[in-house]
Design brief:
It holds the Pfam family MFS_MOT1. This protein is mainly alpha-helical. The chain contains 23 helices and 4 strands. The N terminus is likely disordered.
Length: 466
């Protein structure tokens, strides 16, 4: 009986092609290499310092909801820690994880908006954003929204952060009721002198921020000018390196923890070892309804505009060499939706990616995924080790110092709007900002900005026809 001869071109090895096992092995090695690259420390102290840049937003919102609505702090720390680690691994840039602010505002202003309603709002918002990402409709939104409108949203959000920060610094706060109290005293462990000293310290160390957008660019500039400078140039480089090695935000945060313990030493004895007990949140039909109307409806426009569109555009501004492979509108939508569709069922605060958090982490030195991965590891460790008992210490954290961190994050986000070079662009941006601030609605500001941009384009077209 004749033996069939296998054609040479049917043999992958004869053609020089890799067999499936080798291809899968090389693919796995490529993914592992990409993960190592994304989590590599470009500068240890800078990345650790950048990790603190988002806490001025995160801590006040989470503390307020834990005090007023019994949000489980331990569960929130665990899930947001996992979110931070995963986003750092995926994106390789300091992609933030922040509480959904419109949902938080609804909960703090309405006593009937409790944990089931909060979680329902988070799940519904996440489901909608995930749908836009999975169907790639978010890419259409991203390319459809003109840059001046995005800059208007960023400027409004940055000024919102900065104004809230000034209130934190000037006035004592009742975070449980989300209200400002009397004027903050000058002295004390949470006084004005402490906050002003922290502002001066951060300004001295960090300055107004580097004009260059990457650490590699800084190194290249130094190499270019090294041979052109004399002794004075070398002295300036030494001072710049020294100031760059000072972890200003880490120092401010550690100082705040020390002062929190000093303000209430008994809180340390009240800490309890072990994580919080997780339970699945039961959401009634009425909770779904209220969560949709009061939480999801105002949150969805903010999530689409600030947590996806603005974040992707800001990533391209800050990391132009990495943005194309790091954060797309589709991937940001999918990660934001997926993480809430898991955590919210267990009572973790609904979270999103925010342009303000990215700006804050960049301001203080975050340049890679290691920045948020370290923050995630810290949150996860605290959530597993101490659970909700951490609330006893954090509630004593000097609010003025949180205001200082939030102030620099807000200003850094607002500075992104400085690239509007024409009067047309500036007009649309400022109109969008003004409406967003006065109406307290990014959606309303977006609508007005889009209408104004469209009318200006129509006018320019009619002028060209004439």
């Amino acid at each position: 009986m004749a033996t069939a001869v296998k054609p040479a071109d049917a043999d992958p090895e004869a053609q020089g092609a890799e067999p499936p096992t080798r291809r899968s092995r090389s693919g796995a090695m490529a993914l592992l290499g990409r993960a190592r690259q994304n989590l590599a420390f470009r500068s240890v102290w800078s990345e650790l310092n950048g990790a603190m840049g988002d806490l001025g937003t995160y801590i006040p919102i989470v503390l307020s909801l834990a005090l007023s609505r019994n949000l489980d702090l331990g569960t929130t720390l665990i899930f947001t820690g996992i979110y931070n680690a995963v986003t750092g691994l995926i994106y390789g840039v300091p992609m933030p994880v922040q509480p959904m602010k419109s949902i938080a505002a609804a909960a703090l202003s309405d006593p009937s908006f409790a944990i089931p309603e909060i979680m329902a709002a988070g799940i519904l918002t996440a489901g909608f954003v995930l749908f836009l990402g999975a169907t790639r409709l978010m890419n259409l939104v991203y390319w459809f929204v003109p840059l001046p409108v995005v800059r208007g949203i960023q400027l409004a959000q940055g000024l919102n952060f900065a104004m809230a920060a000034v209130k934190y610094i000037r006035y004592e706060q009742d975070l449980g009721k989300s209200k400002s109290m009397g004027r903050r005293p000058w002295t004390g462990l949470d006084g004005l002198v402490l906050a002003i000293a922290a502002i001066c310290f951060i300004l001295l160390v960090n300055g107004a921020g580097d004009e260059s957008r990457s650490t590699d660019g800084d190194v290249a500039d130094e190499e270019t000018h090294r041979h052109q400078e004399g002794g004075a140039g070398r002295g300036r480089r030494v001072i710049k390196r020294f100031l760059g090695s000072v972890p200003s935000a880490v120092i401010v945060f550690v100082l705040g923890v020390a002062f929190a313990v000093a303000r209430h030493p008994a809180a340390v004895r009240e800490l309890r070892a072990g994580p919080s007990r997780m339970r699945v949140v039961r959401i009634s039909r009425e909770a779904w309804k209220q969560g949709f109307l009061k939480g999801a409806v105002p949150q969805i426009p903010l999530s689409v505009l600030n947590s996806v569109v603005a974040v992707c555009k800001l990533t391209r501004d800050l990391f132009p060499d990495e943005a194309e492979k790091a954060a797309s509108a589709t991937s940001v939508s999918v990660t934001m939706g997926a993480m809430n569709l898991v955590g919210c069922w267990f009572g973790a605060m609904p979270c999103c990616h925010g342009a303000g958090g990215l700006a804050g982490q960049y301001k203080f030195g975050g340049r890679s995924g290691a920045c948020v991965a370290v923050l995630g590891a810290l949150k996860l460790a605290l959530g597993l080790a101490l659970g909700g008992s951490m609330l006893r210490v954090l509630v004593e954290f000097p609010v003025g110092l949180l205001g200082v961190l939030l102030l620099f994050a807000g200003i850094e986000l607002a500075i992104a709007a400085r690239d509007m070079s024409t009067k047309w662009e500036a007009f649309v941006m400022l109109l969008c900002t003004a409406v967003s601030l006065v109406g307290s609605s990014a959606a309303l500001g977006f609508l007005c900005g889009m209408i104004a941009h469209g009318l200006l384009m129509l006018r320019a077209w009619l002028v060209r026809l004439a």
